[in-house]
Amino acid sequence: MNPVIKETVDRCRKVGLRRTKALEELIATLLESGRPMTLSELAASKRLSEQCDKATVFRLLQRLAGHGIVRRLGLHERAAYFALLIPGNHSDYLICTSCGSIEAIQAPCPVHHLEDEIREKTGFRNLYHELEFFGVCPKCA
Amino acid sequence: MNPVIKETVDRCRKVGLRRTKALEELIATLLESGRPMTLSELAASKRLSEQCDKATVFRLLQRLAGHGIVRRLGLHERAAYFALLIPGNHSDYLICTSCGSIEAIQAPCPVHHLEDEIREKTGFRNLYHELEFFGVCPKCA
DNA sequence: GTAATTGCAAATACTTTGCCACGTA
DNA sequence: TACGTGGCAAAGTATTTGCAATTAC
Question: Residue A130's closest chain B neighbor by CA?
Fold first, then answer.
């Protein structure tokens, strides 16, 4: 099994979640997709549709988000997106406003410095950021 | 009347929209608030609640977004947010995850360079970005 | 006069919860 | 055994649309 899946499940165990089949499949699905997914996408995915109800996926995502293991993103669609948070890993996204494709950007994120500045100047705690680029991809143009 | 309102209404006229009372009030409301607002907030605002139906506000926002005069933002809430786009003006936002306050950041945005790079490397058209910082504000901490 | 715009109400879409059965620790 | 989890179905909230009446141009 993918070691990142194992690590992530272990993190779940540490915060008190139980190791269930649905939990493992959810994490594996999010990790394999490599991009944020909606609740509906997740619930309809091969691994999860045979495994459990949409409400279960919803509650799992909710718990995981509460423990900082996934993050909920608003990517302009009506539905919320969820992405796995992997320690030491930060992704920004490039989204096509025409076909809706979502791609993670690996380029070094230029925002950290401003983030530190904001932390100092405003006194905000637990600061993090979300950065998305929107445009029309070559295929759609 | 605020000259920015006038300019914005003029832009609307240029793209073929009719000058209605609701249009002016919507633009004035968004401008005065200085921050993105949800459809519900807008429809319930003083100027608009007496002026028109929520569906009208919705359709106005939709048209304005289609013409690049407002932008729809996903700020983690269940409801979508809408912000006025003023040429030559770009805002990023600082959002408290506890009380939900939203504040525009005026600091020079460090992302433009990366944006240019992405434009060149990927061939995306009409590229723009959205940057938000989330954290817990001093009041809530 | 004509086409865009509006109000009202109804239909959708996505999310969230209640309740009881079930499985993990 | 005990309490977190899961399924199913119902409720909640936000968005979107149909259609006839109205209004800007």
Answer: B132
CA B50 to chain centre: 22
Residues in CB range of A7: below 8 A, 6 or more apart: none
* Residue B5 shares a structural domain with residue B59: yes
| Domain final residue pick, B42, B69, B87 | B87
Residue of A nearest to B81 (CA): A76
Q: Whole-model pTM?
A: 0.93
The parent domain of residue A83 ranges over: 1-87
Cα distance between residue B103 and residue B132, in whole Å? 10
CATH number at residue A8: 1.10.10.10
Task: Find chain A residues with C-beta within 8 A of B137's C-beta.
Answer: 122-124
Q: What is the pLDDT of residues A74-118, one digit of tens each?
A: 998 999 999 999 998 999 999 999 999 999 998 888 899 999 999
C-alpha A5: how far from chain center: 14
* H-only helix segments in chain A: 3-14, 21-33, 39-44, 46-49, 54-66, 112-122
Domain count, chain B: 2
Compute CA distances B136 → A122, A126, B95, B141, whole Å.
10, 6, 8, 6
* pLDDT > 90 fraction of chain B, expressed in percent and rounded: 93
A43-66 pLDDT tens trace: 999 999 999 999 999 999 999 999
Residues B7 and B76 in one domain: yes
